[in-house]
Amino acid sequence: MKRQYYPWYAIALAAALVAAVAVGVPVSTLLLLLVVLACPLMMMFMMGGHGHGGGGGASSGDTHEHHDSAGRS
């Protein structure tokens, strides 16, 4: 997700809200929808730059041993 598109996302969200109010969706329903969408939206915006590159785990060249809390392998 690129920052250059943030204004377009905001415009699209505002247009969707205006259209929903215009067709008669109650404002309380829209507020509830925004609260429900807050978590995934924050995850998209805050973690957007972390999805690049290969996956994790031992197959990506991880040579460190993993130990449990007692220090055992």
Annotate the secondary structure layout.
Elements: H1 6-22, H2 27-47
The H-and-E topology, N to C, reads as: HH
In what range is the share of β-strand residues? under 5%
Radius of gyration: 21 Å
Give the N-terminus to C-terminus distance in angstroms: 38 Å
Determine the mean pLDDT.
77
Structural class: mainly alpha
What count of helical segments does DSSP give? 2
Report the principal-axis shape: elongated
Q: What's the count of strands?
A: 0
Give the low-confidence spans: none
Question: How is the main sheet built?
Answer: none
Fraction of residues in H or I helices: 40-55%
Question: Would you write up a description of this structure?
Answer:
With 73 residues, the protein is an all-alpha fold. Helix content is 52%, strand content 0%. It contains two helices and no strands. The chain has helices spanning 6-22, 27-47. The longest helix is centred in the middle third of the chain and has 21 residues, at 27-47. It is elongated, with a radius of gyration of 21 Å.
